[in-house]
Amino acid sequence: MTAREAGGKVDEKYEFLELLAVGDDEVCAISLLEYKLFFNNVEIWGGSVSPGFKKGKRFVLGGESYSADGKPTDQGLPQPAFPANGGCIELRKGGSLVDQVCYGTDGQAPAPAPGQSIGRSPDGVDTDNDPNDFKILDVPTPGGKNP
What we know:
The structure is a single chain. By secondary structure, the chain is mostly beta strands. It has one domain: Sandwich (Immunoglobulin-like), CATH 2.60.40. The protein contains two helices and eleven strands, in the order ββββββαββββαβ. The strands form four sheets. The protein has a four-stranded antiparallel β-sheet, with no helix packed on it. Strands 3-6-7 form a three-stranded mixed β-sheet. The protein has a two-stranded antiparallel sheet with strand order 1-2. β6, α1 and β7 (75-76) form a beta-alpha-beta unit.
């Protein structure tokens, strides 16, 4: 989610990003300490202690306004992190690319309007094809399953 509209103004600090643990192991927890998030090749998050982050669990990073609104947040984001017009978000472990999405003018996934988000739909499915994997969600689902 890149922003929301409130009182006739767009709040760019009302944003979130969600990581979903996928894989075959339902028992072992993943440590996010070795992971980093980048937006257009600039690091925006440098990993975190993530107890219990295992298959099926979600880790939500929220912007200042989003977090202040009492929404589900495991960690904050620098502000603003995701421009509405687009860019590329990358998850890296060490120097290796683990996952990415490019949206809006910089990519093939759609850019959400204020109050919308994009998400993988069906939830967690990754075919390495952003236009097929990511859909506009009129009702964002942070911490919950995407439709």
